[in-house]
Amino acid sequence: QVQLVESGGGLVQAGDSLRLSCAASGRTFSTMAWFRQAPGKEREFVAGITWIDGTTYYADSVKGRFTISRDNAENTWYLTMNSLKPDDTADYYCAAHHLSAYIFGEFRKTPNEYAYWGQGTQVTVSS
Prior knowledge:
By secondary structure, the chain is mostly beta strands. The chain has no helices and 13 strands.
């Protein structure tokens, strides 16, 4: 059975930092990512990383503030979030896919391109 479990969310103040973790079991993956969904908004891509060489991808809204990383030996990946803003408030989900990180040459950035999902962890940033 494949399982992804997120942890590390919480309530913080603007400017603070958090690190989210996604611990996977049951299999390994070619592609690992983080998405978020704020109330009333669509689920959006935040960051992604490849298993084979650690290439990273970021949404423009978090570039320079967030960092995705992975520990292949532990089948775990992380999202380090710095300089948090109230607009970062959302439920954060880790996701993974067992096939290539790329579809038609582009990194997987939409939710329907991921086969495996965690249950979500809430991040709330107060002003």
